[in-house]
Specification:
6-stranded antiparallel β-barrel, 14 helices, coiled coil, lipid-binding, lipid transport, PH_domain, Oxysterol-binding protein
Length: 749
């Protein structure tokens, strides 16, 4: 065997001392872990002590290149890492090459299976994991093994045939020529036999596919039966709830609602109303499943005692015309600013997006041999806004926070904060192009203090990893700040974008301090098909003063789901865990809030979890998406606010995104010039980074401290709420703007 190699269960292959290992099992293994060997890369001296104990690296077999140097040596390479391994004989080397290629094929299949699991499918229930499903999976695995063997036979057979043909053409004695001819004939027989086996495997594959389709239809039928059974159970739950209320309202127990435990209402006509108005919400992973039942508020008056699970205030307050909730239902883009009319007319359109064709090969051939960080990505993939401007777009529905200031109850205020957190995703539904990556030190201001009551400032505070700090002050009674770092993972068919960092919101008068984090955004059909974006995950919003919480669940899109696409559900609860409001809606359209007047525990669901039944009043619309401007499809699907973000303004800092030349050229439709300018700016930034690295080396040699890049308007400090190191606004920007003193700003454009 190869000296210094062994498999271990952690799905890696270790290289140590393995002289006594007699076989290799390639199944379920897809990495090499190298800790020794006969030949080593430069800089890795080989000693007996080294071979015995430590792991010196891993190689992912799914992307590794397997090659042979001579009769006994194997070369494994992946990117910049190369390992040389030596077998005891040529036969042993060939056995290992075959085993490694089989393991590589399995690793590729495992990676593709993981890529296919994009979150589009709902987790399979226990009933789906049947024996039939397992049989299909096993059969599919065996067929893949046959296909891999087929490829290996064809590969090695062709190589053998070529080698024999080359030998036959050599000038050798007659006896040697006859022996070579005999070997060639045997190779031909081997090829004929292999072809026969391949044909038999192909017939087996066709037969298996035929039966597989039948089994899939049977499995689909069972799934449909399960869905029908779940619907029946839901109907029974509704009838059970109606019968419970009818029983409470029977003779001997009629009267005011306050004389019974829970809400009492007349049974007359209730069953039909219940069936028409009942809404069901999916359970969240970390909370019991719940069902909401819409109730008539006139049957839920209180006299002396509180309703079970009722929220603060009287249920009849829900319909008061002057309540904060009622006013939110009547808001629109124009009405939101009636008290402060715009002082300046903003633009309502930008030049139409040019119809430039994208030649992927011309991009790829320019990337050959270059470092990934130096590959110039054309503006064809961008939209004419920077990431700082996209971050500022979160404020499009700032009036939700203005309304939240007026709430006297912290749980009511939480509803508006939750709606605001969801509204920031509404602009992403059609926006598949990526924003420009800000340069280090780039800033963006949005001063709407006189028009909308707030002013916002963003600064790019780090380039590797990219991080942006954001601070917003509103004279209507709130302050918002955040530092967002974007992490991404490319999984073959889709790209996952994970914003890291907490968002803080504080209301001045009450001192309520809310903290939450963003969910994962997924861009689908990266390679083939039309790009589309989905949001999935959970948001937990916490009021660190009152300890109120809101759990929001963004349901991932599924082709087979009966739910509304882009669905968002959640529950607002107080510090004691008592639920007060149910949130429901979609992240691209609207969010509603329903006040809970009674809660009770129902029967266990299909997964054994106990469902909570929330009886609620009619929902109120807290947020509704503004319609897109006319001709938005030709203007990158920008919203009315987005169209104004890159509008030129006077007196801004020289580092402002509005002054970025490549972005301005792209907006004007001059994409070729924008690409040239983009490369110039990126090379200028690299030169500054190289100079900064040289200064750091020089300071190190002299024994001095080197601080590195320091943000201009933000400073690093520990957040007292989360304990994380964040960039907080230190002040000075708006004062510098008033004085027009930009002497401290770097020259980045």
């Amino acid at each position: 065997m190869i000296e210094g190699i062994r498999w271990r269960e952690a799905e890696v292959l270790e290289v140590s001392d393995m002289r006594r290992k007699k076989s290799c099992n390639a199944s379920k293994k897809y990495q090499w872990c190298v800790s020794g060997g006969t030949q080593e890369p430069v800089g890795h001296p080989r000693t007996q002590a080294e071979m015995a104990h430590t792991c010196r690296g891993t190689i992912n077999l799914s992307t590794a290149h397997i090659d042979t140097e001579d009769s006994c040596n194997i070369v494994l390479s992946n990117g910049g890492r190369t390992y040389h391994l030596k077998a005891s004989s040529e036969v042993e080397r060939q056995r290992w090459v075959t085993a490694l290629e089989l393991a590589k094929a399995k690793a590729i299949r495992m990676r593709n299976n993981q890529s296919d699991d994009s979150g589009d499918e709902e987790p399979a229930s226990q009933s789906d994991k049947s024996e039939l499903h397992g049989t299909l999976k096993t059969l599919s695995s065996k067929l893949e093994d046959l296909s891999t063997c087929n490829d290996l036979i064809a590969k090695h057979g062709a190589a053998l045939q070529r080698s024999l043909s080359e030998l036959e053409n050599l000038k050798l004695p007659a006896e040697s020529g006859e022996k070579i001819k005999a070997v060639n004939e045997r190779a031909t027989l081997f090829r004929i036999t292999s072809n026969a086996m391949i044909n038999a495997c192909r017939d087996f594959l066709d037969l298996a596919e035929t039966h597989s389709r039948k089994w899939q239809r049977a499995l689909q039928y069972e799934r449909e039966q399960r869905i029908r059974l779940e619907e029946t159970i839901e109907q029974l739950a509704k009838q059970h709830n109606s019968l419970e209320r009818a029983c409470r309202g029977a003779p001997g127990s009629t009267g005011s609602a306050g004389t019974t435990k829970g809400s009492v209402q007349s049974a007359k006509g209730e069953a039909s109303d219940e069936d028409e108005e009942t809404e069901y919400f999916d359970a969240m992973e970390d909370a019991p499943a719940f069902i909401t039942v819409t109730a008539d508020p006139k049957h839920h008056r209180r006299s002396g005692s509180n309703l079970s699970g009722a929220s603060e205030g009287h249920p009849e307050d829900w319909n008061l015309e002057d309540s904060v909730f009622e006013s939110s239902n009547q808001s629109s883009y124009n009405e939101s600013c009636k008290d402060l009319l715009p002082k300046k007319r903003r633009r309502s359109r930008i030049p139409d997006k040019p119809n430039y064709s994208l030649n992927l090969w011309s991009i790829m051939k320019n990337c050959i041999g270059k470092e990934l960080s130096k590959i110039p990505m054309p503006v064809n993939f961008n939209e004419p806004l920077s990431m700082l401007q996209r971050l500022t777009e979160d404020l499009e529905y700032h009036e939700l926070l203005d309304k939240a200031v007026k709430c006297e109850s912290s749980t009511e205020q939480m509803c508006f904060v939750a709606a605001f957190s969801v509204s920031s995703y509404s602009t992403t539904v059609h926006r598949t192009a990526k924003p420009f990556n800000p340069l280090l030190g780039e800033t963006y201001e949005l001063d709407r203090l006189e028009e909308l009551g707030f002013r916002s400032l963003c600064e790019q505070v780090s380039h590797h990893p990219p991080a942006a700090a954001h601070h917003v002050f509103s004279k209507r009674g709130w302050t918002l700040w955040q530092e967002i770092t974007i992490a991404s993972k490319f999984r073959g068919k889709y790209l996952s974008i994970m914003p890291l960092g907490a968002i803080h919101l504080e209301f001045h008068s009450s001192g309520n301090h809310y903290v939450w984090r963003k969910v994962t955004s997924t861009v689908h059909n990266i390679i083939v098909g039309k790009l589309w974006i989905d949001q999935s995950g959970e948001i937990e919003i916490v009021n660190h003063k009152s300890k109120d919480k809101c759990q929001l669940k963004f349901t991932p899109y599924s082709y087979f789901s009966r739910d509304v696409p882009r669905k968002v559900t959640g529950v607002v609860s107080d510090a004691d865990g008592k639920a007060h409001y149910v949130m429901s809606g979609t992240w691209d359209e609207k969010m509603e809030c329903s006040k809970i007047v009674q809660s009770s525990h129902g029967s266990a669901g299909s997964e054994g979890k106990q469902k909570t039944v929330y009886q609620t009043l009619s929902p109120k619309v807290l947020w509704k998406k503004y319609p897109l401007p006319e001709n938005a499809e030709n203007m990158y699907f920008f919203s009315s606010l987005a169209l104004t973000l890159n509008e030129p303004e006077e007196r801004v800092a020289p580092t402002d995104s509005r002054l970025r030349p490549d972005q301005r050229l792209m907006e004007s439709g001059r994409w070729d010039e924008a690409n040239v300018e983009k490369q110039r700016l990126e090379e200028k930034q690299r030169a500054v980074r190289r100079r900064r690295e040289a200064e750091a080396v020089e300071a190190l040699e002299e024994g001095k401290d080197y601080e590195g890049y320091i943000p201009l308007w933000f400073e690093r400090k520990v957040d007292p709420i989360t304990g994380e190191l964040i960039c907080a606004y230190k002040g000075g920007y708006w004062e510098a703007k008033d004085k027009q003193d930009w002497s401290s700003c770097p020259d980045i454009f």
